[in-house]
Amino acid sequence: MIEHTLNFNKDFGKHHVDAVVGTTYQHHEWEGLWASRLNFPMTGNGDYFTVLNAGQSNQQNSNSISENAMISYLGRANYVYDDKYYLTATFRRDGTSRLAKENRWGNFPSFSGAWRISKEEFFDVPWINDLKIRGNWGRLGNSSIGDWDYIGTINQSIVTVFGGAIVPGSTQVKLVNAGLVWETKETVNVGFDASFLNQRLTVSAEYYNSKTSDVLAETPIAISTGNQGGSPWKNAASLRNKGFEFTFGWKDQISGFKYSALLNVTTMDNEVLSLGRDGSERNFIDSGQARTEPGRSLAEFYLLQQNRRGNRSVIGNDRQAVARGLGETDIAGNGVGIDLAGEVPPHLLRHLVGEVCSPVVHGQQHAEHGNFRVQPPLDGPERAHQIGQALEGVILTLHRNEHAVRRAEGVERQQLQRGYLIVLSPI
């Protein structure tokens, strides 16, 4: 890794300016060789020959290599006036070896600003100690795929017969998408930070709206295509996440006793904008018990419908259960009848019944007196760790739902920071 940066920092009366420009270069190269044999002969003193060639059976060996590189040009500038007005601009231009030459460069700018209203002369609210309004827009990029996933693999061990003679040949055995582009995420955040009652009470509220375009994901294809190189990568979808995040904090000291508490509430509205790109859009994608459709949430539960009437139940795609349990033709409960002797209509087999993403409430507490410190977990660190792992497992299936990933990773990393987590399931 090579990094070069140039920094500038200067104050001009009430004005403050700082900036940095630079370039970074990262190059990773790795090669591994592995081999084994069994049935090594023994020497006269009871030891085995430790030379690999001495093994007499089960000869195995493998070799693998990995190499990738990224170069970045970056810059950032900050301007502050009188500790009241804040402006920041950043820019990155990244080039990666993991994409084809025509697509390997991406540009990622961001802008932010803030206004500390509590510093203004006209602001005179004694019980508000600090009040700042802020907003930002930014674009990020992701190219986390394999080193050569845009290059097909050729098998040169193919032979065939032409004119009675054996002729060597070759065929492509790994199908790839050579047109892969950067996955990009654009985010807008608007919010405020405030403190009250001599800094004891803090409140933060934020609205976020992020759009992730050209999501990189592996897409399984049939073996009958001749593909033997795993699931090809594709720019599979575009998503939007939006919602609110609220944080409430309280800290105080009574004589030598200090205590604090923090509550965080996050909501998220997830929507799939499109599946595919460049005219390859799809209407839906099924994965196990989940379905993804444009205009709906990502990976919604796609399950069999069940109606309950008293102590009797009907499962939507079980025609015999309908006949035995009710002898009725209205299995959807909507007054629409079907022919029990025929096939159940496809729209009654499985139904979208709810989204995965739910509101999350997270809190933590802390108290101390002298050298004595208490940070009790309401649900226990181990339980918190399990919840974090479960959430991370769900979110990884959502193909980088970034805001939710940030929340889930935070839960697992902090193990709730001796706090609690409540997951509110949708009704």
Key traits:
about 425 residues, mainly beta, 14-stranded antiparallel beta sheet, four-stranded antiparallel beta sheet, 3 helices, about 10% helix, elongated, disordered C terminus
Provide a concise account of the structure shown:
The chain is mainly β.
SSE blueprint and pairings:
Blueprint: E1 2-12, E2 15-38, E3 57-81, E4 85-96, E5 105-116, E6 128-142, E7 153-162, E8 165-174, E9 183-196, E10 201-218, E11 233-254, E12 257-266, E13 269-275, E14 285-287, E15 290-292, E16 300-304, E17 306-309, E18 312-315, H1 319-325, E19 350-354, E20 360-369, E21 372-374, H2 381-396, H3 402-414, E22 419-423
Antiparallel strand pairs: 1-2, 2-3, 3-4, 4-5, 5-6, 6-9, 7-8, 9-10, 10-11, 11-12, 11-13, 12-20, 14-15, 15-16, 16-19, 17-18, 20-21, 20-22
Helix pairs in contact: 2-3
The succession of helices and strands, N to C, reads: EEEEEEEEEEEEEEEEEEHEEEHHE
What is the average of the pLDDT values? 77
Number of helices, counting only DSSP H or I runs of 4 residues or more: 3
Number of strands: 22
- Contiguous runs where pLDDT drops below 50 for at least 5 residues: 308-342, 378-427
Task: Please estimate the helix content.
Answer: under 10%
Kindly provide the radius of gyration, computed on alpha-carbon positions and rounded to a whole number of angstroms: 30 Å
Q: N-to-C terminal Cα separation, in Å?
A: 50 Å
* Percentage of residues in strands: over 45%
Largest sheet: 14 strands, antiparallel
Oligomer: single chain
Shape: elongated
* Structural class based on helices, strands and sheet pairing: mainly beta
